[in-house]
Amino acid sequence: MTDIQKIKELIVLKNIVTFNEIKECLNTSRMTIIRRLRELSYLSSYSHNGTYYTLRSIPEFSGDGLWSYNSIHFSKFDTLINTCSHFVNISESGYSVKELQRRLHVNVKLSLIELYNRQDLYREKCKGEYVYFNKYFPRRKQQLLIRHSQNDTAIFNINKLSSHVITDELKAAIILFYSVLNEKQRRLYAGLESLKTGRGGDTLVSGLLNIDPETVSKGRKELISGNFEKGRIRKQGAGRPEIKKNS
After folding, report:
1. What is the pTM of this model?
2. What is the helix (H) or strand (E) element at residue 96, kind and residue range?
3. In this predicted model, what pLDDT tens digit does every residue of 166-200 receive, in sequence order?
């Protein structure tokens, strides 16, 4: 059995392994092990200082590209610094150190500082703490607008809703206002309030307005991308087909 076959068999059996476990299995030099791992297309953990290894074919990644095994964390973006960069760049409103740590379950401060020093990310102080954003202006501008809107007082607020501070009169006023909007305006308004609320906003807004969370999500994504027609209720071609008159 070749060295590559031995490593593959070991990792498939255990799902993740340490370097020392591979070395005990092969009894060869460090450089030889690294070369064999490269031939197998491996991933190292972004947690635990990258001391755990697996094959790219093993993880069942979540929708955001993460996989955990016995509290060892892996990312399809490989290293911690690559993972931090990806999450910040695609985020709706950037990430502070604390926010990204809650998402990735590891300390990300040094990685974010390094990305900023390399000018791969932009950062700005919001409410007394640094928040990291996409370095490219169009996307960064969207992220900053959403971040500042979340910092403002929103009509919908997780704490207000969960503690029932929002009054019945205000709920009634919101629902009445929502009812007089057209289809596109309703979707965009719901998306706007979801953005203000932040994480969990789609579910909260859909519950209050009694609409599908997917509708809220669609409105939110349209606002972020700006990909909707400004002068129409529906996009061109949507709705009932036009009836042709007979000659």
Report:
1. 0.65
2. strand 95-96
3. 566 677 677 778 878 898 888 998 988 888 777 78
